[in-house]
Design a protein that fits this description.
heterodimer, A: 140 residues, mainly alpha, Arc Repressor Mutant, subunit A, 3 strands, B: 303 residues, alpha/beta, Rossmann fold, Alpha-Beta Plaits, four-stranded antiparallel beta sheet
Chain lengths: 140, 303
């Protein structure tokens, strides 16, 4: 899989790496038993300190998402994806609540709020080169 | 063991200019420390004391547990240093420069030097005077790293480098770290580069350390929030300014924008603890900040 790092993201780099592994596992792009790049290879690919990758792998391992087999490498652990998907959805729900808070703070009505959400969805899809999807009541 | 130690170090220049006003800092072996600060904050003064290029006015500097002036040979042998304005003799060829380094440092790695020259696209027959500013910087970097020093001191290594050269430079430092486990202290204005290599961020401001924190912790525990107009308690701005854990407060367009030292989801609780008289206060729009934002909030409009 392809990792990317964005220093403008509020998340520390090790968390960005963790998030990408978790999302890949939750969505099935990484399956149990799949091999992850070695810490050293990933560090030089991303141009980050190898200790940062080490930290990400250690936390992921402590959370039971990956497992290191001595001499063989690091693999996606068996039996985690369902749990991760539940956690991922919970995370999105929390962010949706934050977004609703922010919109209400700005006195936006539901229509205006929906328009923003729809537009963000479409723009992100386009940026990622996927087929744009627009909801039926979107004005864009 | 601490590889570099500063204890209450001050440095005065003529006309009573105080470049450092009491700096205490310790770098354990293997630490990668990024030093940031606005122009004139004292970064170069601090770094030049490590390889015994500048005496402290007061206080103690120790490198590998030694006084860098008394044990110059011992210290310099194990230290790689790239100065801010590298002065390289113009009439000398790159080859002469690397040969000189090879004769000075017992650990000089010739193969690494050849590899780096190729990577930087430098022809070792060229004279230093014929190189661009960025290329001179690359030669300076090469001389600083090819003896695989235990301690690497880099003063604005990225100055004058284009983005590609900067990335190459980062790769060189990152590989050196993985191979040799060196301790590194470097100053830079490019915080996104710094974040890739440094575990620790030290902010120097007017000769004092304003902040010294692990990079990850800073990113996780600093956020900016907004308190909407009608929820702002009277006098909140003055009550918050200068408080511990509160980096920056502005009141703009009827909203109060506060930069807090806490995780985004703890912002409301934290604000309440700072303003116990206002239990209804609510932090909206909590966002985590990039290192650059944090730096600007910290040093931007201080007197």
């Amino acid at each position: 899989m392809l990792f990317t790092i964005n220093p403008n993201d509020g998340l520390p780099i090790y968390r960005q790496i963790m998030r990408q592994v978790k999302h890949a596992v939750a969505s099935g792009r990484l399956a149990p038993g799949d091999k992850l790049p070695s810490q050293r290879d990933l560090a030089s690919e991303l141009v980050v300190n190898h200790l940062t990758v080490k930290k990400a792998y250690e936390v992921l391992e402590a959370e039971g998402i990956i497992a290191t087999e001595r001499g063989r490498g690091t693999f996606v652990a068996a039996g985690v994806p369902d749990d991760l998907r539940v956690k991922g959805l919970r995370d999105i729900r929390a962010r949706a609540r934050d977004l609703a808070d922010a919109a209400q703070l700005m006195d936006l009505d539901f229509k205006g709020y929906r328009r923003l959400v729809d537009r963000a969805w479409t723009e992100r899809r386009k940026e990622k080169g996927e087929r744009a999807w627009t909801s039926s009541n979107s004005r864009t | 063991m601490d590889i570099v130690e500063f204890e209450n170090v001050t440095r005065a220049y003529p006309k009573k200019v105080m470049a450092l006003r009491g700096v205490t800092l310790a770098l354990p072996e293997g630490t990668v420390c990024g030093l940031v600060g606005r122009n004139g904050a004292g970064k170069t003064t601090l770094l030049r004391m490590i390889p015994a290029l500048l005496h402290p006015t007061e206080g103690v500097v120790r490198v590998f547990g030694l006084d860098p002036w008394e044990s110059q040979e011992e210290v310099k042998k194990q230290t790689g240093y790239l100065s801010e304005n590298e002065v390289l003799p113009n009439t000398v060829r790159i080859r002469d420069m690397t040969d000189l380094c090879a004769s000075l440092y017992p650990n000089w790695d010739r193969r690494m030097a050849v590899e780096l020259l190729a990577r930087f696209g430098l022809d070792s027959d060229r004279k230093l005077g014929a190189l661009s500013k960025g290329q001179k910087r690359q030669v300076g970097l090469l001389c600083a790293v090819c003896h695989k020093p235990r301690l690497l001191v880099l003063d604005e290594p990225a100055g004058g480098l284009d983005p590609v050269a900067r990335r190459e430079f980062l790769e060189v430092v990152i590989n050196l770290l993985a191979d040799a486990g060196s301790t590194v202290i470097f100053s830079s204005h490019i915080l996104s580069d710094l974040e890739r290599v440094a575990q620790r961020l030290v902010v120097l401001h007017e000769g004092l350390i304003l902040l010294d924190r692990p990079v990850d912790e800073l990113k996780e525990n600093v956020c900016r929030v907004e308190v909407a107009g009608e929820k702002i308690p009277p006098g909140a701005r003055d009550l918050l300014t200068g408080r511990k854990g509160c980096f920056h407060v502005v009141q703009k367009d009827g909203a109060l924008k506060v930069t807090l030292q806490c995780a985004p989801d703890e912002a409301t609780e934290f604000l309440k603890s700072l303003l116990p008289e206002s239990p209804d206060i609510r932090a909206g729009n909590a966002v985590a900040l990039s290192l650059e934002d944090i730096f600007i909030e910290l040093t931007g409009d201080r007197p």
